[in-house]
Amino acid sequence: MSFDLLLKARFVISYMKMIPKTIKIRQLIRKGDKDKLYWYATRVGNQHAREAIKIFKVNLHIQGRENVPKEPVLYMGNHQSYFDPYTMLALRGERKETYIAKMEMTKIPFAEIIAGSFETLFLDRDNSREGLKVILQAIEYIKKGNDVLIYPEGTRSKSHTMGEFHKGSFKVAQKTGCPIIPLAIDNTFKIFEATGKIQTGVDVYLTYLDPIYPDKLTEDERKNIDDLVKARIQNELDRLKALHGYE
Q1: Which residue has the higher pLDDT, 203 or 2?
Q2: Cβ contacts of residue 80 below 8 Å, gap of 6+?
């Protein structure tokens, strides 16, 4: 119990280290320099994510990043854990990325100003009109050159098996023609959700699968693109499970 509390305390301290940096974030917001704001806030979030990986001693195994083309892409990943976005945030590099996150995230102190400053969009799942606005904003980000990340399940599966994908998530690719990069992430739920207590030393596997180009799909594949993407991710999850022999 004490070890679990110690890890949580270290994580909270890492999070609190970002709070003084919101002073500069607010200054950049007032100056209206969106580019400097984005990259500064990204560095702040990136550092916290990397520290979280170290605190929980996560062994992150990455495969397939070479599959990402140079053009803007729509990342669509399965969602096992609250830790999923941390893996992506820790890997952020020179490409601009926009995440679509649940509105509940804005209730975390300072999260909205930090994440919002690196162009995160907050989705209210209970308000379809506002949800459409977020999708339209994501389309605009793709058009200006950002990659966009969305978890089409909309909630955590807490397991190796995915829930249903929401078709509305695919409008970003359908309206822009951008390639979809299916993301398979596995074992993150074992860090906390599996037992309710923090587990250290978990092997987490993140695979960037081959891009899917909407304009190269058949009419039937375009109509059922959610099933296509889900099947590719599930196949990778099954492969990882069989390869590494975990439950």
Answers
A1: 203
A2: 156, 157, 158, 159, 160, 185, 186, 187, 188, 189, 193
- The alpha carbon of residue 195 and the mean position of all alpha carbons in its chain are separated, in whole angstroms, by 22
Measure the N-to-C terminal CA separation of the chain; round to a whole number of Å. 24
Task: Examine the pLDDT at 2 and tell me if it is beyond 90.
Answer: no
The pLDDT-based confidence of 103 (bands split at 50, 70, 90) is very high
Tell me if 162 sits within 8 A of 78, measured CB to CB.
yes
What's the domain range around 63?
2-244
What is the DSSP-derived secondary structure letter of residue 228? Answer: H
Q: Residue 39's closest CA among 99, 95, 103?
A: 95
Q: How many residues does the chain have?
A: 247
User: Residue 6 is part of a domain; what is its CATH number?
Assistant: 3.40.1130.10
Read off the pTM.
0.94
Q: From CA 35, how far away is CA 134, in angstroms rounded?
A: 21
Q: Report pLDDT for 1.
A: 52
Q: What is the mean pLDDT of the chain?
A: 95
Q: Do the beta carbons of residue 144 and residue 151 sit within 8 Å?
A: no
State how many domains the chain has. 1
* Sequence-ordered alpha helix ranges (H) in the chain: 2-16, 22-31, 34-55, 84-90, 111-117, 128-143, 171-176, 219-223, 225-244
- Taking residues 155-164, what's their average pLDDT? 93
